[in-house]
Amino acid sequence: MKALVTGGAGFIGANICEYLLKQNFKVICLDDFLKGSEKNIQGMDLEFIKGSVVDERLIKSLNGKGIDVIFHEAAITDTTVTDDNLMLQVNVEGFKYILNLARAENCPVVYASSAAVYGDGFVPMKESQKPNPLNIYGVSKLKMDEISPIFSRETGLKVVGLRYFNVYGPKEDFKASAMSMIRQLGFQMLKGNAPRVFKWGEQERDFIYVKDVVTANIKAFEAEKSCIVNVGTGKRTSFNRIIEILNNNLNTDFKPDYFDNPYNFYQNHTQADPTLAQKSLGFKAGFSIEEGIKDYVLALTRS
Ligand SMILES: NC(=O)c1ccc[n+]([C@@H]2O[C@H](COP(=O)([O-])OP(=O)(O)OC[C@H]3O[C@@H](n4cnc5c(N)ncnc54)[C@H](O)[C@@H]3O)[C@@H](O)[C@H]2O)c1
Fold first, then answer.
1. pLDDT of residue 245
2. One of 171, 175, 211, 219 is an active-site residue; which one?
3. Residue ranges in the chain whose pLDDT is less than 70
4. CB under 6 Å to ligand 1: residues?
5. CATH 3.90.25.10 spans which residues of the chain?
6. What are phi and psi of 28, to 5 degrees?
């Protein structure tokens, strides 16, 4: 089996590459290093192509490579980017080029959507609820979710969209200020500083461990039909509770340092309704927040 992983040097993409190689897939990793890190794929026996998903000629040239599945992770992932044209060019037009490649290669596509399509909507967030993206990043992911069912109806090819919630885990360090809150708080605490959170640390997120996200991608590849589903745990955890769990794992006793939230667009709560993912893909998160953080801290201390 041969897989193309776009954005394969990024956080989630590199975890997918690593897993596929262990399963004896041949892996083509495409990344333009807008964000991704060479270190993330160091030592991996894969074909690396440095290039952009918006380079139509390059994407067309991959036709004939015998690709059996595309895992599309490449995107502008910085949710604070306000250049609408750039965001739509990379996230939406790039996706269209990837779909055209899938048509030419006659292969399924699993792509990264996002909980950002729900904005500050009702929780638990259901795929059937009205989307309400709060920024151009969320809009771009919603546009991808609008395009994919049309494409799969037209071509008969399977396209599965995964609305990831807040992903954390190994290989995210290069993201700096865009690292998960769990890594950012852990980073501060490991440096001996009090963890800084917006007042009063009661914001909640459905944090999902990257190993579960990899599993969801594999289940999506194996699924019978096209669909768009949430990839979350179905539980939400406050930043205050994350600090408690980190304190337990790091043997520390830090108190949060609260400060004012400067953003006027902000998701106060995210929580997936995981029912459809379970029904359509047979996917259920395996790691509780306590288990995920424990595994992550162990991985960090080993590296
Ligand atoms: N991390 C999360 O919590 C989260 C949540 C929801 C959705 N997502 C989505 O999951 C996917 C992966 O996210 P991530 O956290 O691994 O982000 P990331 O920034 O670590 O990875 C994205 C990768 O795409 C590459 N890239 C960007 N533009 C490109 C282009 N034009 N051509 C080729 N490569 C390009 C970057 O260099 C990077 O390696 C993204 O589509 C993101 O929107 C992530």
1. 98
2. 175
3. 265
4. 6-7, 9-13, 30-36, 52-54, 73-77, 90, 94, 112, 114, 164, 166-167, 175
5. 170-204+236-270+290-302
6. -105, 125
Q: Residue 87 C-alpha to ligand 1 middle, in angstroms?
A: 12
Active-site position among 97, 137, 168, 296: 137
Radius of gyration of the chain (CA): 19
The token pair that represents 124 in the structure block: 């638990």
Q: Which of 41, 77, 80, 167 to mutate to test the pocket of ligand 1 (most atoms within 8 A of CB)?
A: 77
Q: What is the Cα–Cα distance from 100 to 93, expressed in whole angstroms?
A: 11
Decide: 46 and 21 in contact? Cβ < 8 Å. Answer: yes
Question: Is 164 in the active site?
Answer: no
Identify whether the C-beta of residue 285 lies closer than 8 Å to the C-beta of residue 212: yes
**Contact of 242 with 182, CB cutoff 8 Å:** yes
Cα dihedral sign, 174-176-181-186? positive
- Per-residue confidence (pLDDT) for residue 300, from 0 to 100: 85
Helix (H, G, I), strand (E, B) or coil at 84: helix
Which residue has the CA at smallest separation from atom 11 of ligand 1? 73
CATH 3.30.70.270 holds for 2-167+207-232+271-286: no
3-class SS of residue 253: coil
Residue 228 and residue 149 in contact, taking contact as beta carbons nearer than 8 Å: yes
CATH 3.40.50.720 range(s) for the chain read 2-167+207-232+271-286
- Site of tokens 């071509």: 155
Which residue has the least CA distance to atom 35 on ligand 1? 74
Q: In the 3-class helix/strand/coil scheme, how is 173-222 assigned residue by residue?
A: HHHHHHCCHHHHHHHHHHCCCCCEEECCCCCEECEEEHHHHHHHHHHHHH
Confidence (pLDDT) at 265:
67
The listed CATH number (3.90.70.10, 3.90.1150.10, 3.90.25.10, 2.40.128.50) that belongs to domain 170-204+236-270+290-302: 3.90.25.10
CA of 7 to the centre of ligand 1 (A): 6
